[in-house]
Write a structure and sequence with these properties.
With 321 residues, the protein is mainly beta. The chain has one domain: Neuraminidase (6 Propeller), CATH 2.120.10.30. Helix content is 6%, strand content 45%. A five-stranded antiparallel β-sheet has the order 1-2-29-28-27. It has a four-stranded antiparallel β-sheet with strand order 3-4-5-6, with no helix packed on it. Strands 7-8-9-10 form a four-stranded antiparallel β-sheet, with no helix packed on it. The longest helix has 20 residues. The radius of gyration is 19 Å and the shape is globular. The N and C termini lie far apart (52 Å). About 5% of the residues have low confidence.
């Protein structure tokens, strides 16, 4: 039976109420040895944010994340208080802190670029094109101890606002400590989250369109080799005849376990790439980071909402994310 005119009018409202209810739903974790006890509460913080990406920890334990559409970096305090940390961020997405307090970001607003955006007076553009070709949709970055920067450009894809974008030029890039820009890979369909192993000898890359997290060996000059499938994602699924894992943000704990935001939730793998379990959330996550004074709180953001989960393990102390 076709819906009546009144029912048609109510459908968007029903959908919106359903989405809000989902975001506020009380969820608990299943047991993941060394990570979470069964029944650990997934705490809803707030929704309605304008883009949710790039979470990272501050020295005081509070968490930052980027509201890409609002050109803002937002802070979440330990008591869940929300405040603005930085405005006019040019669509900042992934973030990384250097040991001197410089905040690095990939910025999506044209011209897309990699830059130091904080503190005031130390801002600096590090790269805004490769071989004369502008970046398209910069997504994530990770900062090595030597000052090298690994970052991803997810490339273009059709959208309602831009149904016919230019040809996609997805890529994985590296800026050396001396400022030299290199393209490390151009064969990853949708390179997204990027992370370094604890010893910085392995680079992990999330391919949103792929079934696996990719891993590479890192040479002394920052170059990579030996691409391989590191971890098989439970989030690999089909929607509207398109297969995707939804693999996005990556984070590490102190034991070298890798946490992946995917279609399935937060997938957890040991340092050999073996699956340990999944933390399911009310909505699909986009990115995640450990924060809190002991760095034992996992903050997860996505689809305009933010959550936090008290875990048994701490995040890696040697990196802000």
């Amino acid at each position: 039976m076709s819906p009546t005119p009144i029912q048609k009018h109510l459908l968007p409202l029903v959908a919106a109420i359903s989405l809000i209810t989902s975001a506020h739903a009380t969820e608990v974790t299943s047991s993941i040895p060394g990570v979470a006890d069964a029944g650990t509460t997934i705490e809803f913080i707030k929704d309605g944010f304008e883009g949710t990406e790039g979470p990272i920890t501050l020295p005081d334990g509070s968490a930052l994340f980027t509201e890409t559409k609002a050109n803002r970096i937002t802070r979440i305090a330990a008591d869940n208080g929300i405040s603005s940390f930085l405005e006019n961020t040019c669509g900042a997405n992934g973030l990384a802190f250097a040991s001197n307090g410089d905040l690095y970001a990939v910025q999506q607003a044209a011209p897309a670029k990699v830059a130091i955006i904080y503190p005031k007076g130390r801002e600096k553009v590090l790269a805004e094109n490769f071989a004369g070709s502008p970046f398209q949709r910069l997504n994530d970055l990770v900062l090595a101890k030597n000052g090298g920067v690994y970052f991803t450009d997810i490339g273009t894809r059709p959208s309602p606002e831009n149904p016919n974008p230019p040809p996609s030029k997805a890529g994985l890039f590296y800026i050396s400590p001396t400022g030299q820009l290199k393209q490390l890979a151009n064969d990853i369909e949708r390179p997204n989250g990027v992370q370094l192993s604890l010893d910085e000898k392995t680079l992990f890359v999330a391919n949103t369109s792929g079934e696996y997290i990719l891993a590479y060996d890192i040479a002394a000059d920052g170059s990579i080799s030996n691409q391989r499938d590191f971890a098989k994602l439970q989030g690999w699924s089909e929607t509207n005849n398109v297969w995707s894992s939804g693999a996005d943000g990556l984070a590490l704990d102190a034991e070298g376990r890798l946490y992946v935001a995917s279609n399935a939730g937060v997938e957890v793998f040991d340092d050999d790439g073996d699956a340990l379990g999944v933390i399911a959330l009310p909505q699909k996550p986009q990115n995640l980071a450990f924060a809190g004074k002991d760095k034992k709180t996992l903050y997860v953001v996505g689809r305009g909402a933010a959550y936090k989960i008290a875990l048994k393990t701490a995040g890696f102390a040697g990196r802000a994310k």
